[in-house]
Amino acid sequence: MKTPFSLNKIARASLIASVGILSACSNDATTTPEANNEVSKTAQIWPKLNIAVKQDPQIEAKIADYLKTMTLEQKVAQMIQPEIRDITVEDMRKYGFGSYLNGGGAFPNGDKHATPMDWVKLAEDFYQASVDDSIDGSKIPTMWGTDAVHGHNNVIGATLFPHNIGLGAANNPALIEQIAAITAVEVMATGIDWVFAPTVAVVRDDRWGRTYEGYSEDPRIVRDYSAAIVNGLQGKADGDFLSDKRVISTVKHFLGDGGTVDGDDQGNNIDSEQDLFDIHAQGYVGGLSAGSQSVMASFNSWHGVKNHGNKYLLTDVLKTRMGFDGFVVGDWNGHGQIEGCTNESCAQAVNAGLDIFMVPTGAWKPLYENTIAQVKAGEISMSRIDDAVSRILRVKLRAGLFDKPSPAKRQFSGKTELIGAQQHREVARQAVRESLVLLKNKNNILPLDANQTVLIAGDGADNIGKQSGGWSITWQGTNNKNADFPGATSIYAGLEKQITQAGGRAILSVDGSYEQRPDVAVVVFGEEPYAEGHGDRDNLEFERGNKKSLALLKSLKAQGIPVVSVFISGRPMWVNSELNASDAFVAAWLPGTEGGGIADVILKAKDGSIQHNFSGKLSFSWPKTAVQATVNKGDDDYSPLLPYGFSLTYGDKNVLADNLDENSKLDNSALTSMDILVGAPVAPWRLLLKSGDELLDVSSSTHQLGALKYRTEDKTVQEDARQFSFSGEQKASAEIVTSFAEDTITYLEANGVISFDIKLNEPLTDDVNLAMTCSGECGGAIALSKMVDQTITNKWQSVSVDLRCFANQGVDFASLTSPFSLHASSKASVSVANIQFVPNKADSAGLKCQ
Q: In whole angstroms, what is the distance from residue 421 CA to residue 427 CA?
């Protein structure tokens, strides 16, 4: 039986004392003997923080003066944060938005290769428009927020540090503060004021696709790191707080995002309130005590209530009890997920305590107008609006945005030599060295002599995008080439340089082939890049269903070549087979752009001495089976393969033999059907129509888009089927899709089928296809005529297709984005209902494949 991590009384007292919290049981000014039980409970669990940044009477007086003169429209505009792809400079001049952002994969002018000067120009243009009072009457400067989560990761040429999971293994808060300070400088070189970091999630289920954004499963590391990063980004309260070399920080995501059921991104956290504080709130204890000026609300729910609309957490806990006086910003249209809300209208979020709506897409305008109308109608009080605007102005005044030069004239703006500066890269290289964890070292094969012939193999060897992971130039970290990382060093390039200098020979061969037999092979492999949503998995088996890396390791071992594995991953994974096939195994996490740090550790110096020893320690427990996704330090039944804090250093006795259990312990016997469209699309699936270049999300019972007509239809009950009529004027499709890829490989392994009911409303043509698609532009399609009885029209028939038919065409069921899409370029009309993945039916499928 697993018991949630909980601090005992002594540990809790030590934790409170270490971050300068006033006693959680003291009679604070807001708590009276008449307080109700809920407030008393809050006071007992949530401490009043001793926040390093105190309120300044002069700033508070200025805030009061601004509020007296601002119109309702100006106040609401401060609460609206649109995205650079969805607004123009003229929009900024007209509305005077309080802030704006660039989401992952958004660039000035839509150009991935925008120069630092392009970023500065956009910042300057929006700033000047915001202080132009000719239309909106406001001179309040706007501020630009960006996701700089492992360096200034949206900008070509920036220094990319190891992702947080690697930094957690380094367990060096002083280094983390230095990294944050460097990030602030590179961000300011592009004219940006505000960073959406640090992420302080305490990850409890490693299936979560954002695991690599967490430093550790241990809340103590997260607490200490949060304070260090806030100090690095913002400066210390008693030093250069928000000076001209610092940026505004954001601790995120409030609260409990690392503890959702099954590691489901944006899912439900059902922890007790005490565990919510003991485990998930410690990053806020550290970061807010250090003076972080903003908090980002989380997509997840707590006991079924979406955090963006949870007044108890956002107002009663965070603002009232903990004493946070900065602002709370939403996450990407997170307000629209609150029950009763849409992206365009959500009084509930404001009333709960959200101060800034993050509202990308065109929803910003109706949201602005609806919020104004809701205040006038009394749905939102003016006092709540004034509180939100006060918090926004307080941060802007503390950051000196009213007094600093405009973005183009600031100290670091446009200094392109700061982007990816060599001294910054050296710190990143140090972070790589300190993040590496040695899991296996049979016969002390490491460190390697550099003056020998070394085969460097694997698809991660010379792949900077793969070693950098998600949130690297693009949101998911995909579709990047080495050329997109100027100044960076791949793992191969770092090894090759040192091997050559020592008189050895480095052979790059992704598939492991060679002409000259090597003395040793270094194989670099691991997870493909991903970010939130797309990275969720249903278990921790590496390369499930496609063991290409294992085949490479076994091939080299069979030839008698010693193998050193360098494993790139955003989480601990079940790799027992790969460990068995390796003489040495290094967990390299996601090291970023400075791959040379790996050569610094695994290779000896030219004179044969050790350059750098392994110093990283596991900040996440390493799983014993593929289903051991929630193994965490402090569990009653704690039994991982390798425990939290494990590490080997040179000379240590190896602990892993070559006979680890290779049974994943996956059990599909209890697998039930997965509903895709049963009555209606079943979450997370939704219906999308395409015709030519036009797209339309289905939102009503009838639609027409170009060559495609859509309507609901009655099969068994009202509107339980969907009818699609194609005119043939252009290629069109009806696609059931999801925003994030889904891991459905269990159904393939369980001999599953896709099952559905279909009615041909007219004779079928040959160019109507059923397709599936997956991440990375993979997919497959089969003619519908091969599945149905074409002699039957206007009557329902049941169809089942072996999922292997699609797998054989290249569909990756571990990253499925559309399980059912109808494509047609000629005239056709069909109706469908009851679409499901059903296990253990392949042998009786209407269409079978081997």
A: 10
Q: What kind and span of H or E run contains 93?
A: helix 89-95
Structure tokens at 197: 């970091």
- Establish whether 532 is a catalytic residue: yes
Catalytic residue (choose from 218, 532, 541, 600) = 532
What's the token pair of residue 180?
């944050």
Q: Tokens 């380094």 belong to which residue?
A: 170
Handedness of CA 242, 248, 253, 254 (dihedral sign): positive
Q: Identify the DSSP state of 21.
A: P
Distances in whole angstroms, Cα of residue 635 to Cα of each of 45, 169, 262, 273, 615 = 22, 20, 17, 18, 25
Q: Is 515 a catalytic residue?
A: no
Exposed, middle or buried, 97 (CB in 10 Å: 0-12/13-18/19+)? buried
Q: Residue 228: in which H helix or E strand, if any? A: helix 219-234
- What confidence tier does 237 reach under pLDDT thresholds 50, 70, 90? confident
Whose tokens are 């007292």? That residue is 13
The residue type of 700 is S
How far is it, in rounded angstroms, from Cα 660 to Cα 288? 44
The one-character DSSP state at 737 is E
118-162 pLDDT tens trace: 999 999 999 999 999 999 999 999 999 999 999 999 999 999 999
How sure is the predictor about 7, in pLDDT bands with cuts at 50, 70 and 90? very low
pTM: 0.87
- Separation of alpha carbons 230 and 242, rounded Å: 11
Q: Where are the beta strands (DSSP E) in 629-745?
A: 674-678, 680-681, 686-691, 694-697, 702-705, 708-713, 721-726, 732-737
Q: Which residue in the list 125, 136, 331, 600 is annotated as catalytic?
A: 331
Strand order in the sheet with 194-195: 99-102, 143-146, 194-195
Ordered DSSP codes for 258-304: GG-GGG-TT-EE---HHHIIIIITHHHHHHHHTT--EEEEPSSEETT
d(CA 363, CA 542): 39
Q: In the chain, what is the greatest distance between 2 CA atoms, to the nearest angstrom?
A: 83
pLDDT band with cut points at 50, 70 and 90 for residue 208: very high
798: pLDDT strictly greater than 60 = yes
Distance between CA 678 and CA 835 in Å, rounded? 6
For the chain, report the end-to-end CA distance as a whole number of angstroms: 41
CA 426 centroid distance within chain: 26
- A 10 A CB-CB count for 656 gives 18
Token pair belonging to 57:
């009477």
Amino acid at 793: T
Q: What angle do CA 411, 122, 414 make, to 5 degrees?
A: 30
